[in-house]
Amino acid sequence: MTPIPPTSTYRLQLQPEFPFAAAERAVPYLAGLGVSHLHLSPVLEAVPGSTHGYDVTDHGSVRAELGGEEGLRALAATARAHGLGLVVDLVPNHMAASPRHNRALRAVLRDGPDSPYARWFDIDWRAGDGRLLLPVLPARLPEVRDRFRVSGGSLHLDGQEFPLRPGTEDLPPDELLDAQWYRLGWWRLARTELNYRRFFTVSELIGVRVEHPEVFAASHAKIVELVADGVIEGLRIDHPDGLADPQGYLEDLAAATGGRCWTVVEKILTGAETLPAAWPVAGTTGYDALRQLDGVFTDPVGADELTDSYREFVGKAGDRGGHWEATGRRAAYEVVTHDLASETAALTRIAGRICAADPALRDHAPWALRTAIRELLVRVPVYRTYRTGGKEVLTPEAARGAKAAFAVPEEATAVDLVRDLALGTLGNGPEHRSFRARFAQTSSALRAKSVEDTAFYRYTPLLSANEVGGDAGRPAVPVEEFHAYCLRIARDWPGTGTVLSTHDTKRSADVRAAIAVLAQCPEVWAELLAEVSGVPAPDPHVAWTAWQTAFGFGTPDPDRLGPAILKSVREAGLRTSWTEPDAAYERAVAEFAAAGPGRIPLRAASAAAFALEPHIRAHALGAALAQLTMPGVPELYQNTEREYRALVDPDNRAPFAVGPDDERTALVRAALRLRRAHPEAFGPGGTYVPLAAEGPAAAHCLAFARSGRVITAVTRLSLRLARAGGWQDTELVLPEGRWTDALDGVREFTGGPATEVKLAELFAERPVALLVRGE
Length: 775
Fold this sequence. Notes:
Number of helices: 29
Strand content: 5-15%
Number of strands: 27
Shape: globular
Structural class: alpha/beta
Radius of gyration: 27 Å
Strand order of the largest sheet: 16-15-14-5-2-1-18-17
Largest sheet: 8 strands, parallel
């Protein structure tokens, strides 16, 4: 059974301030907007007060703070009455590592490896002293020992609660602590001593082993029930790269749901990487489309000029020369040796046990194994390997590069051993399978942390390019590449998701549009920086990044810009970090943000800057219309049906609220209603045909036809266009027929082989056009 994909989805961020009942009240408005499905953030039980829901505590119940299962079913019924379905965010990879709220984890802490829940989690009981390390103490154990108390069969400390091993309640304090199946430790020990798999570097989220059939069944029973009952019609799978076997998991999920769900995966594709064809899903959540959309509206020449200016401006305050590839590689080394030290230690232990059990592999020193693991991990060019295609990722060239890190050639043979283990070509025992899975899981965490959460904050010539799935070193995408992508998606993954803004984007699409326009006018950006140079910044890198963020945001707002700028310097880790903060430096950053980017209206600071507003509008409208009509299922993040300026989370996760309509809202309604009225033109079986303009400004028009029924035409790089003299005699040949502009319902155009439409006329009212062929 192949599920029918939505025509479009609308993402709502559920939280205690915006529960199911609030979403139910929004249904009539969203139905009128034209979407076919509501996309809900995670709905299962989570840590009380959680504003995101990814810290799941109980897979068997719908979150009470949101209204419980009754509230979810009521929302589904109201949605159905308005012609809408529900898509739900599913989190299979991890749960909250909270003993108080996670019943399964609590059982493991009480009963140890013999607990029926022990197989739920990736715990290495053979590491350290054989106990599960819980790095939850605010200081070293001797400093907090006197604050523990025993009550009701549990151990309590500062609001935290831990179950006690049966029969240990009456032991003296020191003996009691030593008698547990867990070891309570200082939070800083997580970096090097952790012995359970976690989500990235977040020790508060413990990995779940859904590869075991009984764990999958128990953790998915409620979701499968809701699918069977018709409450849920689609699933977004969070972080599949964290799973031991993503393909196996997705096959199990498809079997459990009977293929009734439209399913997309939050898979981040790198460069020319494509989604594994064997995965039983409709596609990705859309970050690959976001990369194409951002790139095709970015000027490559100006982006290069900005990069040169950035290197000169930032100098030594940046990341040693400001070159993207080198920045990414340095960040990867730092993350793999520092942030992911526990993960590389776990891999080294597994490899060591494999070697110890095989006479042919003995005498590989732990340091050599650890070095080989590290050197191969930093050379994985994508997020991770899968069942197939591993040799194209972990190439012989990568192995040669890894061996170069060894001073003694004989020790470098550890690289071949680790590569064979990671590829699964050396043995198939439990430890071998464990190593292969953990290597891939660690690889995905390394890529995410080193690129998205480190390098993107260190290398900042053009911040609009520094987005999940993006390429900061190649921010622009040629029109031909965009068309090739769309043709491939229409052929291979017509039901995939497309996005412009999400709950994880570092800057909303409108903020990125404003920043991207700077690539068309590097000299204006240089003038703006000169005008605000009187506001002292802690260093040039912060100045460049903060002012560009402020320009994109558009309106001085210290309460929102300040935290975003502080987060950027902590993520960069050049002068301060989350775990080793420099208080004096952070005070200087906060003072600078308040006095400068949070106070000065940069986009109105000069006539040249103010003159960019029409071109920001052209970019934002063009990207929006292209996303809504290109192949795939478009998702609107809450509130983005109108101008929406938001920064990195938590700024972009405020509760949904209906706002006043604007120009964008009319465009969104027209496009979504068109998709809903003609699903055959946009969905599986629909065609995508690139349309090429002719004339001196042809490169500034991006146009395509969908199934001979709809034409999208948008303006790209409008500032460069205006400086070159406008559209002049540039024309677009429309397919045969009578075409009406769906954005006003009035203007008509005639298409045919000998009938050209002047682009100056087509774009006379607005920089975009959505044409519908008459019957």
